[in-house]
Amino acid sequence: MGSITIKDIAKALNISISTVSRALRDSYDINAQTKQMVVEYAEKMNYRPNPIALSLKENKSRSLGVIVPEIANTFFSQAINGIEEVAYERGYHVVIFQSHESQEREISNIQHLFARKVDGLLISLSGSNKDISHLDEYRKNNFPIVYFDRVPETPDAHKVVVDNFEGAFKATEYLIQKGKKDIALIISPPTLSITQERTAGYKSALEKYNIPVREELIRHCSFQKDEAEQAIKALLEEQEPDAFFMGSDRLALNCYEAFKKWSNRRDIPLVGFTNLGIAHLLEPHLNTIVQPALDIGRKSAEILLDVIENKRRGKGFEKVTLGTELNFRS
């Protein structure tokens, strides 16, 4: 038996095709009894809308584009799970691309998604450049975009982030309260919003306890493994820090591995801004500041879909800030 259509339902129930269509869309001008009759019959016959026909009729693909720097990153994989969860619940599919920290690839990804006629875009910016002029033409044409985690400075954009300042402040304060004063910060490129906010939180905690900020203890790294190793090795040899704070998800594991390679000390505490699921298994301990990645993905998708479905009329641009969870071991 082939797939049942709206025409088949209309014939079986002896009503018009337009009535069936409006009943399935929960239109206000169809009475409750007719809606119930149509919905129950559709469910009984396992009716499924034709996505191609719907996209042609509504001028929508019912798909969302997602661009992240790297899917293998624990934070981004969890965020994508949240995005897909909400998208599926609301009848949308998700198309995922990786920028691999390249703005050139990010631009190519956006162009490809736009050509595929996705209904909107969720994006976490690459680390190579904070310039978002390549997105201006889409924004000016009211193409729905929501930024998450790594966001632009412009106020006229929807954004979903965590409180990076507070998370970094509490991590640094924790180390200070452990008696540490020479705290090394290894952080992502300075072009990123998360870098600026987490560095500010680190410095603010030092200032609160009247500890001088030593710029030589702050190292900016790309996400290449060898850069993290070089930073750790240089700090251990030249500065002798008494604690390490790794300020991004991917850097945390690279730095941890380098620390184990170049130091046999177990009295130096390590803190990572990371959602790494196996942190509790590591020895020496890796204390973590955990982001609510799943909730970030969910909220980003909810805002984007509300924009697409015109459920945010009269509302301005929204910035949602979520808290972090401090997971400190001994």
From TrEMBL:
Superkingdom of the organism of origin: Bacteria
Gene Ontology terms for molecular function: DNA-binding transcription factor activity; transcription cis-regulatory region binding
InterPro entries: HTH_LacI, Lambda_DNA-bd_dom_sf, Peripla_BP/Lac1_sug-bd_dom, Peripla_BP_I
Keywords recorded for this protein, A-Z: DNA-binding, Transcription, Transcription regulation
Domain (HTH lacI-type) ranges: 4-58
Name of this chain's protein: Transcriptional regulator, LacI family
A Pfam short name: Peripla_BP_1
Species of the source: Leadbetterella byssophila (strain DSM 17132 / JCM 16389 / KACC 11308 / NBRC 106382 / 4M15)
